[in-house]
Amino acid sequence: MDNRPIGVYDSGIGGLTVFSKLVKLLPDENYLYFGDTENIPYGTKSREELLTITHKIMNFFKEQNVKAVVMACNTTSAVAYDSLKEDYDFTLYPVIQTACKVIANMGIKKIGTLSTEATANSHAYKNQLKKYNPNIEVIEHGCSGKWVEMVENHSQNDKANEPVLKQHLNVVLENNVEKIILGCTHYPYLRNILTNFTGKDIFIDPAEYFVKYIANDLKNNNKLASNKSYEPKFFVSSNPEKFKNSSEIFYKLEELPTLIRR
Ligand code: DGL
Predict the structure, then answer these.
(1) Is the overall model pTM greater than 0.90, yes or no?
(2) By mean pLDDT, which of 41-45, 77-81, 249-253 is the weakest?
(3) CB within 8 Å of 145: residues ≥ 6 apart
(4) Is residue 1 part of a domain?
């Protein structure tokens, strides 16, 4: 048994799509969620910038004495995980590398991924899916930063945003893929609206497989908490009010998140 907290992070509210599922599955854990609102968006940043950012977050969690960090961010899982995985003595769970173990073997022959530009340019999805299924065909596409922005601002249902959603979705659809991975933790919030455009729900949210893996891994390593000492604590690097308001419809925060500057 290990009662130390689990750290979860993303650039903003996107990681809550993972966090909310994790809390449902493992309600007795102690959680710390960090939204790096100062540095959002991650998807247009360079590798060097993303490495610096991710190290700062890991060091924050190290100070908090976590037992594990859930990288609920595709972009830093894609770009930074390999470089920092040996640097910390807590367990790291990167979303792409973990979820692809399952998705690669779901019997899909041709799959699309929608993600940030940085994730698409890294080819992390293609590499990981092919690692577990060399025959799978993968069509990766990096979407405009507007996709993340509209989720953060709750403007995804505005008619004015339809063209930018359709434009990127169509690039992948034109390739006749069977399924599309929502390869950015902000995108599951767009699932309903994207399904309106495709006519049927062909989307895969990696979080579903990701949280199950984490739960099993903690269990198998005897690292589950025996009891919860506190409700989830939230931290942001800027603008706590905006984070609390934007997260409202996805996960209700009782208090303002704590502002930490590094
Ligand atoms: N939600 C994050 C991801 O999964 C990052 C989005 C962004 O800040 O660009 O990639």
Answers:
(1) yes
(2) 249-253
(3) 41, 43, 44, 116, 117
(4) no
| Residue found under tokens 């390869």 | 183
Q: Is 6 in the pocket of ligand 1 (CB under 6 A)?
A: no
Ligand 1 pocket check for 11: Cβ under 6 Å: yes
The yes-or-no answer on residue 184 being catalytic is yes
Residue 114 shares a structural domain with residue 163: yes
Give the integer Cα–Cα distance in Å for 170 and 173. Answer: 5
Catalytic residue among 8, 50, 73, 124: 73
Whether 202 and 225 map to the same domain: the answer is no
Task: Based on the fold, state whether residues 124 and 111 are members of the same structural domain.
Answer: yes
Asked if 100 is an active-site residue, the reply is: no
Host domain of residue 122? 98-206
Q: Is residue 214 in contact with ligand 1, taking CB distance under 6 Å?
A: no
Q: pLDDT tens for residues 83-104?
A: 999 999 999 999 999 999 999 9
List CB contacts of 220: < 8 A, sequence separation 6 or more. none
